[in-house]
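anyone seen this seq b4? input:
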Amino acid sequence: MIFSYVVCSSPAAAVRTEPSQKAEMSSQLLFGERAIVLKQEGEWLYIECHWDHYEGWVHQGHVAFINHKQYKKEPKRVCGIGTNRLMLPQGTQTILSPGSDLFGMKSNQFYWYTDNVRYKGSKVIPAHSNSLLKNSLAYLGTPYLWGGRSLLGIDCSGLTQIVYKQQNIKLPRNAAEQATTGETVGFLQEAICGDLAFFDDEEGNIIHVGILLDSQQILHASQKSGGVVIDAIDHGGIISKKLKKRTGKLRIVKRYL
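predicted toks r here
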């Protein structure tokens, strides 16, 4: 049963597996992203994210409540790459990551935000024609963070999802689910920039994903390397430049553009 509707009011709000600050962070809501509240336990809300239908617990301090009519209105723009700032009272500011929704914004202000804040930064209309390569490279060097979707920390499927969000293409949250979408590319040699490469473990489970820059290079958020890096790839999988060894076994390549 739908309880209410919310929009993320923090640069990035942790979505957790249980209603506790000690619970694992499995994903994040970025600023301006919406969610349906399915139930509540104290100060914790169990939500379904609008963008990818991912479910989990978020603390109510990181969201603002909106009504159904407001929830249904799609934002026309998102934050692009570059310095995107939310100008707060008393001259303070906070940084917003690419892919954050500029939901409910008019004249650089947000009607749903409780404080008098102004947005200063890029405003991008998500579209297939946007530069996927440019958007991907913006994350190079970002620290690895399990469940992360922002420039402060990101995981492998969070990276692919948020880059494709700027292309106005919805991908599921997890690598295994992402691998069930898109069109299969028969051979790695046929890959083009923007194709996604998926990797499996010894049991055949998809456990990793990255963005191919061409048929020989991959940009991915690597826990083993500590962040978003560019590595070599061949038919056998990833060859880590930092670790000087193979770190992933290639399973399949998918195309979305």
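The chain has three domains: 4-72, 78-124, 131-255. The mean pLDDT is 95. kinda curious what u guys think
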